Amino acid sequence: MRRSMLSLAALPAGALLLAGCAQPAESGDEAVALGAGPVHERLSIVTGGTAGVYYPIGGALSTIIGDNVDGQTGSVEATGASVENIRLLGSGEGHLGIVQGDAADQAAQGSADFEGDPVQTYSLAVLYPNVFHAVTLASIAQAKGFECFGDVIGNRYSVGDVGSGNEATTNQVFESLEIALTEIEIDQLGYAETASALQNNQLDAGSWVVGEGHAGITELGTTDDISIIPLCDDERSAVVNGYGGYTEHVIEGGTYPGVDEDVETIAVWNALVVSGEFNEQQAYDITSAMFENIHQVLNVYAPGEEYLVPETIVNSPVPVHPGAVRFYEEQGVEIPEDLLP
Q: Which residues form a coiled coil (predicted)?
């Protein structure tokens, strides 16, 4: 969907069941099929790698479901994260998935990794934002004149590891800004390799699409003077109003060593999503149980405290599941019309 989202500042695979996993019809019968699937007693929660944030959040959710939703258990599964998770939901091999919002949006549009093979998912909750950091060394920023993100044209830039969400987000930013990849000397490096390449003068800048305060950027900032390249006003507008469901975001000065001024950028929200057939009452029960026991999620991801509230659902990159809509309405949260299923 192409739309502008609210800014952050506006906010106050165990046993896999294959039965009943058909997607909602794409005809006028969709409203009848949506939320009408069977109740899954054993839920596969698809997440990401064991070293990332998705996996422990999935583990906390599994515990919450097992302890608070009668007759249901959850099994957390390590996966390749967003793109794989959406495909697992679409095939019925996963039941709940944690995904980056831009991947969910691309899946619904049938673009990027989902070209010709769209998958529509529905949100139960929006979790926390991954913030787009265009990181360089202060000496490089000064020598290259990096004042806006577009200044990286003609330079060496790491978009992230091959097939990563980091790469997908960075490529979407380039596309929204109408910057061709041929205009940049592209590298596909993980975070640690990007930091090392900057230090060894093998790179001019690179992306970290991560939770704010990321340890890798902090570590780099303790050994070298760093700079984060801002997205200037017209650039943020182009990205937020393009595809991907991005929001504007400010990295406050002092978040990282040596970066004393606020940095204007964008963020992509992570969401807990399900397929359209996911049972409506089950969706309501799980959403309710999660927020009633949100402290268990915060125990594994404390930086999410600011965001793990019902009001964050207005930043959903895809429509909200009807079972979850009922929960949010009970909480007095008004769901934007374009997010209603």
A: none
Q: Find tokens 């006003």 and name the residue.
A: 233
Report pLDDT digits (tens) over 236-255: 999 999 888 798 999 999 99
Among 172, 166, 182, 136, which residue's Cα sits nearest to residue 49? 166
CB 156 within 8 A of CB 185: yes
Tokens 């360089």: give the residue: 136
* Amino acid code (one letter) for 79: T
Given a contact cutoff of 8 angstroms between Cβ atoms, the answer to whether 121 and 89 are in contact is yes
DSSP letter, residue 151: G
**Residues 104-151: tens digit of each pLDDT:** 998 999 988 899 999 999 999 999 999 999 999 999 999 999 999 999
Which one, of 304, 135, 100, 141, lies nearest residue 208 by Cα? 135
Residue 67's alpha-carbon distances to 64, 70, 114, 124, in angstroms, are: 5, 8, 36, 19
Q: Within a 10 A sphere around the Cβ of 56, how many other Cβ atoms?
A: 18
CA distance 179 to 28: 39
What gap in Å lies between CA 275 and CA 252, rounded to an integer? 36
Specify which residues 158 forms β-bridges with: 187, 206
Compute the residue count for the chain: 341
Amino acid at residue number 225? D
Q: What is each CA distance from 74 to 39, 154, 246, in whole angstroms? A: 13, 48, 30
| Overall average pLDDT of the 61-68 stretch | 98
